[in-house]
């Protein structure tokens, strides 16, 4: 099952260290990116996830992030199919992140 977590509630989603997996493209990261604050940040574009799966720890909670939440939901579903147990989709993506958690993150 995939949890849905609002950016403002990310730190309450799972106890311990969370990895935020940003699946946006490099050009998007150049426009707006989150700052790790109480979590680990890892950026892997959606299309590279299958080839780079070994970079992710299946025992660690992973919250997927994209622009609005569609791509990150697909990645979250893929991770669950690969045996990852603690997976969430960050609802509303980086756009919601800017509105709910860090207004210094540009909206695009």
Automatic annotation (TrEMBL):
InterPro entries: PpiC/parvulin_rotamase (IPR052204), Rhodanese-like_dom (IPR001763), Rhodanese-like_dom_sf (IPR036873)
Domain Rhodanese, residue spans: 14-106
Protein name: Rhodanese-like domain-containing protein
Organism: Pseudorhodoferax aquiterrae
């Amino acid at each position: 099952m995939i949890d849905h977590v609002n950016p403002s509630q990310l730190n309450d989603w799972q106890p311990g260290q969370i990895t935020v997996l940003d699946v946006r493209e490099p050009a998007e990261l150049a426009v707006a990116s989150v700052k790790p604050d109480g979590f680990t940040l890892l950026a892997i574009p959606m299309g590279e996830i299958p080839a780079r799966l070994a970079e992710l720890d299946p025992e660690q909670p992973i919250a997927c992030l994209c622009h609005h939440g569609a791509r990150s939901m697909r990645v979250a579903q893929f991770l669950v199919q690969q045996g990852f147990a603690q997976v969430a989709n960050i609802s509303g993506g980086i756009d919601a992140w800017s509105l709910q958690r860090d207004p210094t993150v540009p909206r695009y």
